[in-house]
Amino acid sequence: MSPGRRERGLVRPYVVTDGRAYPTRNTFDLVTLVMAHPDRPLTGLSPEKRRVMELCLGGALSVAEVAGYLELPVSVTKVLLGDLVDSGHISARSPIPAAELPDTQLLQEVLDGLRARL
Amino acid sequence: MGSALASDRAVYLPGTVRVAAKILVVGHFAVGKTTFVGSLSEIRPLRTEETMTQAGALVDDLRGTEDKTTTTVAMDFGRLTLSESLVLYLFGAPGQRRFTRLWRDMTHGALGALVLADTRRLEQSFPVMAVLEEHGLPYAVAVNHFQGAPRFAESEVREALDLLPETPLVTCDARDRTSSTQALIALVQHLQSRQARISQEQA
Hints:
The structure holds two protein chains of two kinds. Chain A has helices spanning 3-7, 47-56, 63-70, 74-86, 104-115, and strands spanning 33-36, 61-62, 90-92.
């Protein structure tokens, strides 16, 4: 086995999602914030879903961060998170609505926050 | 990363954060996107990789390209907690326009984009600006000044990049946090005035 392949992980990404490329729900954005419910049992979860839970039990993270820390493609991460939302293990905060102008207040808050860092 | 638990490396958001905003940092290869994101991020920048032919729906996106083998597209991103309720994510995105699904994902819900440009290779910024225009994402341009790169008058750079009069053009040093913050501020101010203009037109 070449070093390049080893670095990429031994399990092909779509094995961990049972071959699915799309999540059961289409509500995840890269910056959707997700949190795990600490009282849900982890028994019966696949190893990858356990890893997601282990990570998300620590606090809130974005979908992109979950993918980054677990070194999984974003698409695979969305499938796993979708299942975990369905089973009540994870809750997600609503993503930003698309194709709308960001609201005035949000832009002002971003601007104020950036200026405060100067 | 070996056997280290991901949860040991993770830097979690404060429990009070309710809203996540997203800005893209785009530009051609080696223009300084990762450096820019790294200067501003409060966490060590993370990388996600997407393999672009494994999902079935990508076949259309690759139509017309010679090479249909799998391609890995990497995105580096960082995070800035701007207030107790608001977090901003910066995504450093590659400029290849053929990754339609990736662009859809990245531009979805994004406030806008900062295009990094290099005066030695201004023409390489065109495809990047074109893809933003295709997706209707407003942008500002920041010339990342590299040592030894020629300095041109603003009007010359504007002309070379064929910028609209309202598109902001600033100079920055992607290695410097203050300078990079100022470039983002120029973008957000542009987004504000654009929004004011659009709501006026709609009124």
